[in-house]
Amino acid sequence: MILRGRLTWIFLFAVIGANAFAQRVDTITVYSPSMDIHVRNVVILPEKAESGQSFPVIYLLHGYGGDHKSWIQIHPELPGLASRYGLIIVCPDGKNSWYWDSPVHSSQKYETYVTRELIPYMDGRYKTLPHKNGRAVTGLSMGGHGGLWLGFRHPDVFGACGSTSGGVDIRPFPDNWEMSQWLGSYRENKARWDEHTVINQLYRIQSGSPAIIIDCGTEDFFYEVNEALHQKLLYHRIPHDYLTRPGAHNAAYWKNSIEYQILFFHLFFNTKRH
Question: The whole model's pTM is what?
Answer without folding.
Answer: 0.91
